[in-house]
Structures are given as C-alpha cells and as structure tokens.
Prior knowledge:
Blueprint: E1 5-9, H1 21-35, E2 39-45, E3 57-58, E4 63-65, E5 72-80, E6 87-92, H2 94-97, H3 109-127, E7 133-137, H4 144-149, E8 161-166, E9 174-175, H5 179-182, E10 196-197, E11 200-202, H6 203-210, E12 213-216, H7 219-224, H8 235-240, E13 245-247, H9 275-287, E14 298-305, H10 311-324, E15 328-335, H11 337-349, E16 354-357, H12 362-371, E17 374-377, H13 387-393, E18 397-401, H14 404-409, E19 423-425, H15 430-446, H16 448-460, H17 466-486
Parallel strand pairs: 1-2, 1-7, 2-6, 7-8, 8-12, 12-13, 14-15, 14-17, 15-16, 17-18, 18-19
Antiparallel strand pairs: 3-5, 4-5, 5-6, 9-11, 10-11
Helix pairs in contact: 1-17, 9-12, 10-11, 10-15
Adenosine-5'-diphosphate binds next to α1, β14, β15 and α12.
Amino acid sequence: MPPLKILFVSPEVEPFVKAGGLGDMVGALPKELAALGHDVRLVCPLYGSVKRIGAWEPVAGPLGVEVDSQTRWARTWRTTLPGTAVPVYFIEHDEYFARPEVYSGAGDNDLRFVFFARAALAVCEQVGWTPDVIHGHDWTTGLIPVWLNTTLRGTALGRVATVFTIHNLEHQGLSDKRVLPYARLPWSEFNAQSLESYGGVNMMKAGLVHATKLTTVSPTYAEEIRTAESGCGLDHVLRSRAPDLIGILNGVDTVSWDPATDPALPAHYSAADLRGKAACKAALQEELELESAPGVPLFGVVARLAPQKGLDLLAEALPLIMQRMRVQFALLGSGDGPTEAAFARAVRRFPGRVGAHLGFDAGLARLIQAGSDFFVMPSRSEPCGLTQLYAMRYGTAPIVRATGGLADTVWNYAPGAEAGTGFVFGDATALALYDTIGWAAATYYERPQELDALRRRAMAQDFSWGRSAARYAEVYRWAVEARTATVAPA
Ligand code: ADP
Ligand code: GLC
C-alpha cells in the first residue's frame, strides 16, 4: 500500500507541551506511523510554556491566517519529534499563545483555537504540502472538517479526508456564536444538524458531524458514548454516525516509559530483575515524607483532579482506610478544590502515612508509577486512560473502576487462578473503592507470591503502539476512499 501524507493537528504534543494524555498520544502515535513509512507532520500552538527541545528554525515568510475581518499574521517554526525526522510546526502568535497555559482561563479559548485550526490549514499552503488526511484531536480542531466541507470545498484542501478523534467528550468547546463570523463560516451552518447547540457553536459537535471518519480511544468508550447516560448530550450525533466511528486503544510510548531506562528514577528494573523497584519505593517515601517502611503497601495516584477521575471518592474513603488499614498513600494531582483540600487534610491528619503534592510534576509522576505497589484510578468515566498502562509497565498493580478504556485494559485478579493484571470494581462509590483497596492490601500481606505473579503478568502485557498504529493507518485509508467517493476530483 502506498504511504499516506498525514497531518496531525493538536493542542498538545509531548514532549513539548502537555496537559494530559492527549499530549502523550499525539507525541507517540506519529512516530509509529512514520516507522510504517507514512509522511506524518504535526501542528501545535507555540504557548509560552512550550519546551524548545532540539533544533528549531523559522519557516520563511509570514503566515497569513484567514479569520476575523482582516487576515491575521503569525509565524511558523519547524522542529522535529525528538529522535525522529517527523516535522512539528509550531504557530507563533503572541496575542493568543504567548501565555503559558494550553487551555486558558481568560475566556478567549474559542478564538484562540479557531485561529489555531485555521492556521494549521494555512501551514499546508505555506510549506507547499497537501496532506491526504488531516487528523484532528478533540474540540480545538473541530472546525477543520467544516471549512473543508463548506468554504474550502473545491480547493485542493477541500478534497482532503478528515479523521477526528474524541479524547474526551466532556470538553466540547461550547462557544458564543461570535465564532462563526470570526471563522468566516456561513450562517447556514448555524443549525442543529451542523455545529449549533444551545444557541452557541459546539466545536466538538462540528467535528463529529463533519469529519469523514471518527475514532475514539477505546472500544468500550466508543460504545458508551452512544448512550444517553454517557453521551454528554451528543449521543444522538454519535448514534447517527455510528457506522463511521470506531474505538482504537491508545498505546504506551515504550521508549519514554521504560523502568529499565527512565532517567526520572533513582534505580532501574525490569520484569526479569525487579530489585530496583524497592529503591524507587524508598525514594518516593522520602520525597513525600512518608515513613520509610518497605513492607507497607504503598498506593499511588497521579491525575487531574476532575470529577471524571473519581478521586473525590478516594478523598471520602481515605479517613476510614487510614484508620483501619496499614497502608500508605502517595498523591499527585491538581484541579478540583474540595478534593485538593481533602488530600491536604489527610496529609495533616495522617503524617508519615499520606503524602501529597498538589500540582503538576512530570518527574514525580514517574517516581509514583515506579515506587508504588498499587495505582488507584476510580474513574467515573475514562475514555482510555494512560496512567493505568504506565502503572502496569512499571510493575504497579492498577486498581480501577470498570469503565471505558480501564475495562479494556485491566483484568481482574482472581485468587489462585493465575490470571488478572489488577483489581477491578464496578460501583462509583467510596464504599466499593474502600473494599477494593482493602482487598488489594490483604493480597499484599496474605498472598505476596500471587501479587508478585500479578505484577509480572501486568509487566508482560503489550501496550506498545504497533498494533493501534496499523489500525489508524486503516482508518486513514478508509477515510481517503470515502472522501474521494464524495468529492469531485480537481
Ligand atoms: P487524562 O488525559 O484524562 O488526564 P490519561 O491517563 O490519559 O488521563 O493521561 C494523563 C497524563 O497526564 C499522564 O501522562 C499522567 O502522567 C499525566 N499527569 C496527570 N496529572 C499529572 C500531574 N499532576 N503531574 C504530572 N503528570 C500528570
Ligand atoms: C483524555 C482522556 C483519557 C485518554 C486521553 C488520551 O484526556 O481523559 O482517558 O487516555 O485523552 O487519549
């Protein structure tokens, strides 16, 4: 099969900038696609916080972006994904992107990301490269398929196929209708069959309605979001597009996330020789001012503290867990105020047994993955989840609620059955989580050999990107065929 030209348009690209797993996914999948022979390139905004890793050069000439009443001017920088020849284009535009945050609190995310999405198309013209497929990620890129289907139809870009990936349906980019004239889109699109909802513009919906093909990041989530219960108000759209929607599991960047080489760890280990893991546990206990206790089970958390992640359930269960069980907790996260406050209270109330860092810290995230015995993820909803995959790769047993990608990647422990890669529960309640943490702690103390075998099974799972990258390549071809069949040739 001939190679494809694929443009990734994304608000986050690891290792330059990330707010969550979307950045991890977009930083990893293109490398695998390039290894399969495809010409993959990426576009991302140049936020003030972007790490300028590797060599950077400006693309000649200014970048004219056709938004608003007058062309806005920006600048394009070119670098590559580290260790590869995959080009990454960063869009410099100080008014929108000089600030450090990816998603800003200033109330102009709608204009910032419409500008970005339109700029990504302008970059194709600037560098003289027309992709076969544009792969957009979440709502910030949702208008791209709309332009290709409307104002750009009949141009070279108008023939390009689009694949739109849902990473998280909870964030839809619901914006004021000012977006429409700003994007230079016709008012005829402002209807419920296109991008309008609740009197505003819904950029996620725009992508879902207009993209050639849709994907999301796990098969179970692909099913869940078609139901009224989990469809975040867009289930009817997803049902109507069901023939064009598939779930493909995310993978792990196995070079970056490897306990045998991870530079963030004080000691290294592998399934063949787990000894370094104890040194990581000791270092984690020291870092978070926990008692040095090699024989006490340590439960780790690394997450955005959003309601989706269910960590309010842990906050609720924690006092009773600490009173009744001989365990320790290492918590890393920021977000939801009451959950942060509850974690801080637990640290004060159980000094030396609960440690927390309320912030974002990439190095500590890795130390928690390596140094913990268990990784707690009681998500109410989880499109895929990467942290449970990292935990398994680092020999740390995940404790998860059976939802979305967690249900697709973690197999429940059954005593004596030589099966299972973690501990799985069903109800989104503090009690169910309490019981499961108790079950895990009992396994640690009473059946250490079984836990050791579970750990090794988890480490032996193959979550590398290879298989999923081949599936994305199939989706791209499917999209190109479908687009060619509907759009007249030049
Ligand atoms: P989501 O994208 O919903 O946040 P994922 O599990 O897919 O969930 O990915 C989360 C990513 O963000 C992981 O790489 C995780 O290590 C990282 N992460 C989340 N919270 C923090 C934090 N407080 N500090 C450092 N890294 C974090
Ligand atoms: C979203 C989801 C998470 C998923 C990530 C990468 O942030 O919340 O479950 O792993 O995107 O696709």
